[in-house]
Amino acid sequence: MGDQPKDSISGETIDSAAGLIIEARRIVVFTGAGISTGAEIPKLTTESGVAVSATEAHSFPQFVGDPAERKRSWQLWSMFRMIDDTQPNATHGAVAEIYRMDKLDCVITQNVDGLHQKSGIPDDKVIELHGSIRWLKCLSCGKRYSMLDIAKRLAEGQDEESTCSDCGGKLKSATVSFGEPPLSEEISQAEKHSRNCDLFMLLGSSLMVYPAAYMPIYAVESGAKLMIINTGTSNIDDKADIFLKTEINNILPIIINRVKEKIGN
Q1: Which end of the chain is less crowded, N or C, counting CB atoms within 10 A of the terminal residue's CB?
Q2: First to last CA, the chain
Q3: What is the pLDDT of residue 7?
Q4: What is the three-class DSSP state of 128?
Q5: Alpha-carbon 15 to chain mean position
């Protein structure tokens, strides 16, 4: 279809997309960095799709082995108080509407910003394949800490460095860094939900990193319909029942409004 403004996408296409959502009972929404337009946050994934935050530009071995790298991370964490002010955009809101329609099985996201939860989707409905910037984790015992709580303490000078209060282990943001193993439980859950959905919506991901890129394949192989909304392309575009090459913020809210009109909400 090409890169087209929202008004060039036909009403018939919008109706078809809305129809897929209306017919579905178990929708999996898969989101990548492309949904973040308008949310006014730094892109928290690399161009290759590997999730790193501004705090984790180094590799995992560097973080573990180099005190200077850890100190740089602690200094950068203090900047993440701005997460408090970051708000979901129209795409996050549209996905939350699918949840409120009781059609959302889950969100599988490559993003680490927590904006799906902030839009009103419960934690247990969001599978974060690359972890979350909202949390820190102890590399020794696994205890989790609020990123914002630690960031505020560092910014206020209460701590010069950050270690686990239980075991004294190193704290690291709970995101997947270069050289760090993938989150096996999240990958397993994502595969399970992908294989059991009846509509898989791929939003803003070019599917350049594995095993995340397998999820829409699992869904299609299991008989699910596939809707793709992207500004770019992916290796599964030819499998889509509906493929819209356009800005997600421009079109998904329109599709969801059409769904609500048709079902009378």
Answers
A1: C
A2: 30
A3: 44
A4: strand
A5: 26
Place of tokens 């090459």: 245
- Provide CB contacts within 8 A for 92, sequence distance 6+: 35, 39, 115, 116, 118, 119
Token pair 């897929």 in the structure block, residue:
20
Cβ pair 21, 265 in contact under 8 A = no
> What is the structure's pLDDT at 145?
85
| Residues 6 or more apart whose Cβ sits within 8 Å of residue 74 | 154, 159, 160, 161, 162
| Local structure of 262: helix, strand or coil | helix
CA atoms 44, 185, 217, 126: torsion sign: negative
Give the per-residue pLDDT at 14. 95
* Interstrand relation of 199-203 and 27-31 (parallel, antiparallel or unpaired): parallel
The C-alpha atoms of residue 44 and residue 251 are separated, in whole angstroms, by 23
* Segments in the chain below pLDDT 70: 1-8, 37-84, 154-161, 178-179, 265
- The Cα–Cα gap between 246 and 254 comes to 13
The pLDDT assigned to 20 comes to 98
Catalytic positions, please?
Answer: 130
**Peptide bond before 211: cis, by omega within 30 degrees of 0?**
yes
